[in-house]
Amino acid sequence: MSDRRQTLIDLLTTACAWGAGVVFLYASIDKIQHPAAFAQAIANYRMVPAVLLHPFAWYLPVVEAAVGLALIVGWQRRGAALLAVLMTAMFIAAITTALVRGLDISCGCFDTSEGGKVGLDLLLRDIVLLVAAAVPLVMRRDRWSLNAWLGRGQ
To answer: Would you kindly state where each structural domain of the chain is located, as residue ranges?
Structure first.
């Protein structure tokens, strides 16, 4: 593979990792600040048992923040990308079931007080996020990550 093509692939991988990382990190901020409101947003989906609402509302944004930071700095980027893909798939499943059941709810994605409504636009946005998160997962080489600078990357 030519150096120019490899550089473009490296740039795409880094851009996708940073983009997904910023989204995950930003999405975690309001949720961490307002766990009770986020628990209510989760409850509105009617998918999580009541006993798990508050632990889920606390741990999910903390994991989102950790995944976002890891994607941005490139520490264990492929593992972080795997978690981002799995979480995004879970978000897509929740949105899809809410749409199928006709629930008129706020997604709780970025803002626990107002948040965007669950709809097809939200579903499409999450599909784009899923693709962006998957790019660093499937690319073997990660030239501009913290792991690469520490001599642990490919």
So the answer is: 3-149
Output the pTM of the full model.
0.89
Measure the CA–CA gap between 2 and 24, rounded to whole angstroms: 33
3-33 vs 77-100: helix crossing angle, rounded to 10:
60
Tokens of 49: 């048992």
pLDDT tens by residue, 46-100? 999 999 999 999 999 999 999 999 999 988 888 999 999 999 999 999 999 999 9
Among 21, 109, 35, residue whose Cα is nearest residue 73: 21
Say how far apart CA 141 and CA 24 lie, in whole Å.
Answer: 22
- Output the CA torsion sign for 52, 57, 61, 66: negative
- How far is it, in rounded angstroms, from Cα 67 to Cα 70? 5
- 117 — phi, psi (to 5°)? -75, 150
Q: Which of 103, 59, 112, 50 lies closest to 83, judged by CA?
A: 59
The two structure tokens encoding residue 37 = 């409101």
pLDDT tens figures, 96-136:
999 999 999 998 888 887 667 899 999 999 999 999 999 99
